[in-house]
Inverse folding.
């Protein structure tokens, strides 16, 4: 390798290292691009109805924030009320449990008393864990503030991208050689269509899971069934981990009514999750973005391993975009053209001479001979 090749290799390694260090920022930028693409496609639909660009963008952003505000309006008040009731009933339940243990001690032999747990001793043993949890509350608050700042950054970037999307698109396209820019623009258009398909599929999955959860909880007469159903549908956007998180508040609220409802809620969410992961999501995603179920699962494991929780949340849209680029650039433009020198294909054609063709050829030879003899004379 000469000096120029060494410099190029070092520059490539440094670029990959820098990109790895700022991977979280790149993921936030990608989240902003996905959100801006969604709102831009929605604004274009409004423009086709006759609205101007500015009014269409304002209407799309208004619908987005109305959905976010409506989600928190449905979720927060019922959960706050149920949480207050839960904090009141949990100590009450511990008191009843302690009273039952005291009554049990009066009816069992003295030899078995050391094996009966004491609630006071259990609380003393749990005190270090409680102190540790309270000590970690500051870290939780700081982490919550960090999440809020990241959400604000995504919203600000979304507004910037949405204000003038063509300008940012042209800047990205100009990063490629001039002969390839038209091709990159076409790939970006395919990415937009695929992202729109993923968003449609995700919306279908969220609606189905939310409706099934709400109906099942209503049948079990669990309080705040609407809020719990909306939460279950929204958490379905986070593959695998989201449904697990959504079952915790549902089981806690079911505990306020009867202990058997906790098991019933767990079974309900288990069957909904199985139906969602084995039927709903694979079928919807395969029809909308042509993603195989195994590819979906592998992508989740890959992105959560290298990018953490944010990578898990953005695993499916990242996979959709990566699929388009791999299919168009690596497979079509590189591998399919491997060894092809772009020379026109030639065909060897063998024509058999028929008797008529031979007679015509002999006649032509005779005429040429006569012309030659006349010229000699």
């Amino acid at each position: 390798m000469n000096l120029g090749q060494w410099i190029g290799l070092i520059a490539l390694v440094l670029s990959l290292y820098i990109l790895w260090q700022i991977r979280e920022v790149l993921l936030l930028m990608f989240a902003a691009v996905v959100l801006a693409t969604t709102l831009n496609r929605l604004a274009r639909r409004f423009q086709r109805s006759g609205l101007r660009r500015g009014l269409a963008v304002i209407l799309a952003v208004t619908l987005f924030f109305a959905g976010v505000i409506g989600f928190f309006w449905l979720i927060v008040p019922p959960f706050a009320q149920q949480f207050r009731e839960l904090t009141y009933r949990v100590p009450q339940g511990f008191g009843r449990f302690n009273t039952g243990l005291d009554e049990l001690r009066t009816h069992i032999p003295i030899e078995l008393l050391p094996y009966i747990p004491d609630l006071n001793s259990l609380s003393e043993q749990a005190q270090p864990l409680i102190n540790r949890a309270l000590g970690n509350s500051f870290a939780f608050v700081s982490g919550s503030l960090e999440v809020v700042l990241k959400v604000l950054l995504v919203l600000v970037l979304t507004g910037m991208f949405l204000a003038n999307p063509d300008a940012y698109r042209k800047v990205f396209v100009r990063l490629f050689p001039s002969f390839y820019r038209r091709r990159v623009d076409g790939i970006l258009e395919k990415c937009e269509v695929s992202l729109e398909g993923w968003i449609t599929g995700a919306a279908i999955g969220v609606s189905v899971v939310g409706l099934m959860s709400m109906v099942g909880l209503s049948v079990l007469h669990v309080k705040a069934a609407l809020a719990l159903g909306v939460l279950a549908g929204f958490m379905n956007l986070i593959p695998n981990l989201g449904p697990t998180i959504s079952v915790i508040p549902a089981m806690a609220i079911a505990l306020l009514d009867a202990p058997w409802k906790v098991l019933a809620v767990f079974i309900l969410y288990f069957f909904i999750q199985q139906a969602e992961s084995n039927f709903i999501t694979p079928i919807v995603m395969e029809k909308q973005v042509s993603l195989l179920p195994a590819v979906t699962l592998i992508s989740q494991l890959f992105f959560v391993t290298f990018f953490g929780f944010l990578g898990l949340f953005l695993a499916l849209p990242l996979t959709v975009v990566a699929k388009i680029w791999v299919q168009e650039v690596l497979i079509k433009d590189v591998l399919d053209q491997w060894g092809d020198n772009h020379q026109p294909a030639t065909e060897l054609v063998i024509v058999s001479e028929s008797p008529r063709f031979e007679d015509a050829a002999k006649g032509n030879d005779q005429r040429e001979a006569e012309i030659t003899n006349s010229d000699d004379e």
